[in-house]
Design a protein that fits this description.
The chain contains six helices and six strands; from the N terminus they run ββαββαβαααβα. With 168 residues, it is of the alpha+beta class. The chain folds into two domains: 2-72, 3-Layer(aba) Sandwich (Rossmann fold); 90-167, no CATH class. A four-stranded antiparallel beta sheet has the order 2-1-3-4, covered by helices on one side. It has a two-stranded parallel sheet with strand order 5-6. A hairpin with a 2-residue loop joins β3 and β4. The longest helix is centred in the middle third of the chain and has 14 residues, at 105-118.
């Protein structure tokens, strides 16, 4: 499904990603391990289309994603810092991307409620994300990534603020 071929990326004229190639099959889960600053987050940003590789190519089901903008890839990316909109409620954070997809209000409501149920946050819809604990904010970020029903989920340390029971 996902294939990376020879991905290179430099920052400030220093090599960060050097010839990264890998394949991920449907239903497969992989984990990138490495020290801070080794390029894990950058590789996720390249896969999602938020950054371009200097060299190499990303493929989805055999087709190059080079010309596909991030919003058309339908990949969910959960950022390490959650990237929630602090001025919006939990519901509005989850609904934002769904509105960008031009879904109807009823479908948005169904997807938001389904995603909140998955992360055990039903009843939190009207709360502002700034009123939530770190673990609750992380669960909102996860729900927001799940709501559009992405074909691929990319996690950048999304479970660090969750206790063991919630991680499972």
């Amino acid at each position: 499904m996902l294939k990376l071929e020879n991905i290179y990326k430099t920052y400030e004229e220093k090599p960060l990603l050097r010839g990264i190639s890998l394949e991920v099959a449907e239903g497969e889960t992989i984990c990138l391990l490495g020290p801070s600053g080794s390029g894990k987050s950058t590789l996720l940003r390249v896969i999602s289309g938020l950054e371009n590789a200097d060299e190499g190519e990303v493929f989805w089901r055999g087709k190059s994603l080079e010309a596909t903008p991030p919003h058309l890839r339908n990949f969910g990316l959960i950022f390490q810092d959650y990237a929630l909109f602090p001025h919006l409620s939990v519901y509005e954070n989850l609904a934002f991307g769904l509105k960008m997809q031009k879904l109807g209000k009823d479908e948005i409501r169904l997807r938001v409620n389904s995603a909140l149920k998955q992360v055990d946050l039903l009843g939190f819809e009207s709360r502002r994300v700034t009123e939530l604990s770190g673990g609750e904010q992380q669960r909102v970020a996860l729900a927001r990534a799940l709501a559009p029903r992405p074909r691929l989920l990319l996690f950048d340390e999304p479970l660090g603020a969750l206790d063991r029971k919630l991680r499972e």
